[in-house]
Amino acid sequence: MLGTFGFSYIGLIYLLMLFVPNIVWLKRQPEGYKELAKKENKILLVFERVGQAAVVATAVMFSDYNPTEFNAWTACLLASAALMLLYTAAWVRYFMKPTLRNFYGSFLLIPLPLASLPVFAFLLLGIYGKVIWLIISAVIIGIGHIGIHVQHLRTINKQNKQVGNDGGDIQNEN
């Protein structure tokens, strides 16, 4: 459960799938995002940053995520990979129309997909590899990252109700 030190190419692929769209997003942030970011809960932000560093380190430094044989645990790896593919699809939707609605709105009934999908993908990857450090790291980043996105979504929905936007809550749209 502690993990076998060694390079994980699966971890590297996941990190590339995570970082590439986020780097592009830096230049294509939705209008209104910066105002939301200014009001982020500092405790959640600490969880997010610590979790980010821990996930990056533990995703590549244990070789346990590299498949060696097909067994019952492979289902966790396949589910994890499916979540990362859905994450990529959610980014495609966002980049086609970079709005707060597409950034925070559900995707295929998955709430906050750009926050939740990679967290659960890394959690499942940790379970597949039986590496407690990645499991703990995914929980830590999940508390921070998903928590921040929930905070942002609540703020957006509250603002929409205050201005009489009859479009309803962002999360319940899709």
Task: Describe it.
With 174 residues, the protein is mostly helical. The chain has one domain. Helix content is 69%, strand content 0%. It has seven helices and no strands. The longest helix has 31 residues, at 132-162. The mean pLDDT is 93.
Short characterization:
By secondary structure, the protein is mostly helical.
Q: Which features would summarize this protein structure in a list?
A:
7 helices; 174 residues; 69% helix; mainly alpha
Described by the principal axes of the CA atoms, the overall outline is elongated
What are the secondary-structure elements, in order, as H or E? Answer: HHHHHHH
Euclidean distance between termini CA atoms: 39 Å
Number of domain modules = 1
The tally of helices reads 7
Helix/strand/pairing category: mainly alpha
Ordered list of secondary-structure elements with their pairings:
Blueprint: H1 9-27, H2 33-38, H3 42-60, H4 74-96, H5 100-104, H6 113-129, H7 132-162
Helix pairs in contact: 1-3, 1-4, 3-7, 4-6, 6-7
